[in-house]
């Protein structure tokens, strides 16, 4: 069982330890994690507030403990940061952020007097049936999307079910939601959601969760070495993981320092680079652990098997070669 006192090594402090003990007790239980989410959000700083590395340490610690918990809580932190960046307060309750697009579906926003209405289908809405509110992007014309705060308890909001068959993160269902004339409140102007620096900082926050899971996964190698004297191959796997995690830790620390100093010229490029470094480290660690430990823990250790499946799915939010090509286009 993951140690809730364990640190990811990014910062010495990330809120009260008792919250991480509660996170450990919520492992594998999205409903329990949702109940804890508002308290975690209150305990951790906002990105860019001067304590960004403490925020990322907190997210990494959640990732070390359990990815169902971390994946459930992270959007709550993101929603709070988005609303703070817009100069708004987040009403009480649980929040999601639904900003993905998908083929064959479209969500539009139309003015209705002094208000706005949302119509259509939004894909990839994680835990929509269990949340109180969400920040949702919708098309306001043919080329621009706006961001809207939505009360998900309205009768005109319908969350689908039954299409999520993932073996990783099985409780964090991400399915489509239908909106039929749903009342919504605009947050920022058209295009603001993607233009703001916080969009990049939130993307790195997700990568901090991946990093925490990779730290926990790599610890399985060192734990095995403590039970049986490692041979040269085992030591090579341990060293490979250690070097990759050290480089990633340094990258996250430097990124946080630059963000807090206000010295980032291109937030999107920084986020793309950091997310790529973290994702590649996760893939390095997953491969090394698989090769070093073989099938045993994948079939006989529930926590290990769940972490591998969860991380494998979660890190696919990094778009691999497409993101690398985007970085390349930014630097030539």
UniProtKB/TrEMBL annotation:
Residues annotated as transmembrane: 199-221
Keywords, ordered alphabetically: Membrane, Transmembrane, Transmembrane helix
Listed InterPro entries: Acyl-CoA_Oxase/DH_mid-dom_sf, AcylCo_DH-like_C, AcylCoA_DH/oxidase_NM_dom_sf
Gene Ontology terms, MF aspect: oxidoreductase activity, acting on the CH-CH group of donors
Statement: the UniProt record of this protein carries the keyword Cytoplasm: no
Protein name stated in the entry: Acyl-CoA dehydrogenase
